[in-house]
Amino acid sequence: MAEVNLRLRGGPYDGQTVDWDVPDPDDPPMSYELRLHGPHESAETYEYHRAERAPDGAAGTWIYEAPGSR
Predict the structure, then answer these.
(1) CA nearest 30: which of 64, 53, 70?
(2) Are 48 and 63 in contact (CB under 8 A)?
């Protein structure tokens, strides 16, 4: 396994960076799911989809977007 960094766009995690262990850092899975929950709310799952590799200078970083964020 190798670690990649995800930059999330849109949805409740907009602007956050997440570390993710993946089998192939040059071709990570097409989607990533996060569960959002708090003390007084039910858990919701948010799915982000791979959009592109981050610009040069950010090795091992991929940009994932929430549906409808463009």
Answers:
(1) 64
(2) no
